[in-house]
Description:
Elements: H1 3-23, H2 27-41, E1 44-53, E2 56-63, E3 74-77, H3 84-91, E4 95-97, E5 119-126, E6 129-139, H4 147-178, H5 188-205, E7 209-216, H6 219-226, H7 228-245, E8 251-254, E9 259-265, H8 269-284, E10 298-305, H9 312-328, E11 334-336, H10 343-352, H11 355-362
Parallel strand pairs: 10-11
Antiparallel strand pairs: 1-2, 1-6, 2-3, 4-5, 5-6, 7-9, 7-10, 8-9
Amino acid sequence: MTSVLREEKFLNTLVEITGLITAGLDRRMTFSKVLSCALEVLAAEAVFLVTLENGVVVKYAKRRARGDVEAPMERYERTGDRGIAWWVMMEGKAVLIPKVTDEFRPSTPGASVSGTGGCICAPLKARETVLGVLIAVNRLEASAFSEAELSVLSVLANQTAIAIESAKLYEQVQEQAVTDELTQVFNFRFMKDALHRELDRASRFRQYFSVLMLDVDHLKDYNDRFGHLKGSTVLKELGAILKATARSIDTVAKYGGDEFLIILPQTPKEGALVLAERIRSAVATHTFPEVSCGDISCSIGAATYPEDGKSIGALLESADTALFGAKRTGRNRVVGAGRRASGEDAAARTAGGSARDVSEELME
Length: 364
């Protein structure tokens, strides 16, 4: 590749990365673009990008295959070697090493490069925080890597760091858009969409799904005694309990002031009652602030599609009625839909505002 073509590829890559950053797309797409650019513009035999993902050090690699062709990007979880990449991450400085000996030791099978040669490394740095390292190894042309190539690598590293920061911010914004700020479970908006999706899926494939409606017992009394800030702590801890106790396929969401809804895909009534009892027990045996273990409990109503309702509104009303039955018969218990409340109880529940008000909003 001529110097003119290399410069053109370099500039085009910077434009592409800017577009990817603006679009908030998957950072791996950016990594692939950066590594391809570095491989060609720097005339390197191999390029690596080392970064952290959920606390795990991960290495992305692109190398030349046969016939000077670029190989696909590979991903490795890195083990504990501490060579040049580690030094660059710790020091936050770019470095040019004319001849690499034992310092550069790729730890992952298949990530090695032929022989030893020159190496340039640049930190992925955003606001004084090093997010990773970009590395190019073994220049194919007669001349070794120079300060000019190191500058090119540093520009690519800086753009990559911006892309990582942007992707993190995008993910946070996306998460915040569907998460209840206090309890860190899904919010009402997400729950609404999830219910519609689950109803569509269950009706199409003629399957069950269940919902659990949960309410904290005597939370008003607790707030009167210890204040609403402590009450908010109860709800926050309850959200954590629900997320830890529910299955990975379940959706835990905030439903109302102190009410939660859990959507249980492909779950008949019997399975829903088992999980509900597990949740009830987990809450009853947890020690909440200011009170003894067991002083805070919850009541749970369970309803199943299609037997307890063939629409979202009907299903939620069945769960709400079951929840009220649990509270009316003593609290700290699980009740499945199907029991009829007395006329007086039903009227009182309607006067107080039931799931019907919320279900009308869900049907919009």
